[in-house]
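User: Reviewer 2 asked us to show a designed sequence for the structure in our supplementary figure. I'm pasting the structure tokens here. Could you produce the per-position amino acids so we can include them in the response letter?
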């Protein structure tokens, strides 16, 4: 499964002011975590010459053939400041170049398009759609807006949303994106719409049916960074292989709950815990 988007250098600041530096972006989080669960991930990205972490991908059995080093730009970099409870502040510190056609020429089969700073155009999205059998799209990189200091706000216009829905088989949205959207209408024509809600997990809508949980199991959160990326990639993988929607949704959320127990992209997944969480979430699942 190809995961397309900028790899980043993240400065993560927890509510107590502790700072951790790590690689970020969906190619990193999906690659590092899901490869431990026998999900085959092929990162497709562009970084600058300042990025010195490519060996980390090779050490985890990930191909770096799809990661291009662009000498003319710095690697995309974010500062993430977490507040107590849910919520964070994002600031874009640097941004590498946009994706070009030749960056995605080898994409086939299942693709997850997960930009983080507007690096994938809608025209390029259509090209990936034409070359893939199943395509998931994370709206975050299309909805983020940046002020002169790089501070991030979110605004998803309806024209962009319609383009994402037309092209994607699965669209992942944050709860912040959906205030005035008719999600039941959006999820028709066999489209999947996943809405993530931080510690409250989220819900999935497909052909007018809503999959959610009647309560949220407790989990010890160390670092929520990348949990949404992992959720979207895991769900795309299982749905693209014809798995049942309810099981795929519960499984993806279980993997996300396991991820938040670990700092950055460097944790070791506990497959037994994921199996137990999947069973628990299936028991809590409500379909309406």
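Assistant: Here is a per-position design you can include in the supplement:
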């Amino acid at each position: 499964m190809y995961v397309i988007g900028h790899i980043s250098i993240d400065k993560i600041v927890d509510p107590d002011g502790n700072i951790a530096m790590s690689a970020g972006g969906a190619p990193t989080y999906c690659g590092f975590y899901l490869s431990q669960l026998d999900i085959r991930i092929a990162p497709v990205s562009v970084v600058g010459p300042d990025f010195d972490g490519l060996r980390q991908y090779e050490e985890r059995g990930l191909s770096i053939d799809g990661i291009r080093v662009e000498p003319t730009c710095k690697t995309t970099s974010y500062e993430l400041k977490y507040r107590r409870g849910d919520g964070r502040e994002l600031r874009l510190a640097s941004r590498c170049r946009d994706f070009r056609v030749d960056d995605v020429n080898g994409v086939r089969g299942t693709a997850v398009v997960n930009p983080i700073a507007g690096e994938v155009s809608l025209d390029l999205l259509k090209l990936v759609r034409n070359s893939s059998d199943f395509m998931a799209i994370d709206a975050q990189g299309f909805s983020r807006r940046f002020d002169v200091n790089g501070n991030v706000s979110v605004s998803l216009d309806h024209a962009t949303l319609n383009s994402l829905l037309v092209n994607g088989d699965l669209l992942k949205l944050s709860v912040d994106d959906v205030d005035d959207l008719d999600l039941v209408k959006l999820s028709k024509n066999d489209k999947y719409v996943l809405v993530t809600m931080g510690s409250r997990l989220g819900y999935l809508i497909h052909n007018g049916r809503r999959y959610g949980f009647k309560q949220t199991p407790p989990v010890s959160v160390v670092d929520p960074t990348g949990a949404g990326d992992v959720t979207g990639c895991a769900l795309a993988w299982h749905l693209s292989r014809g798995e049942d929607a309810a099981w795929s949704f519960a499984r993806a959320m279980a993997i996300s709950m396991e991820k938040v127990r670990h700092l950055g992209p460097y944790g070791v997944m506990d497959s037994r815990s994921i199996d137990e969480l999947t069973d628990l979430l299936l028991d809590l699942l409500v379909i309406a």
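For the response letter, you might also mention the following. The two ends are 31 Å apart (CA to CA). The longest strand covers residues 76-82.
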